[in-house]
Predict the 3D structure of the following.
Amino acid sequence: MSGSVDGDTEKAVDSIIERLLAVRGNKPGKATQVSLKEEEIHLLVNKAREIFMAQPVLLELEAPLKIVGDVHGQYPDLLRLFEYGGVPPPAHYLFL
């Protein structure tokens, strides 16, 4: 993570991301469910909003870049994309 995120918040977000990615390779269904507390969801949403709002309206992106259509909120599909294309930040994605 980068930007104006303090150390405790960065650790909390990194911990949540690790838990979310821990189910990679599992079959869709209960094996890919991750329980998050309401506070954790609020933290992720607020940090994502902060990052998005700091971005310019026009993004200047560099190759290589994977362009992905809508995953319709299907978490197992997102994990499968990361399995094939790599997990950010080393892999770069543009979600439409």
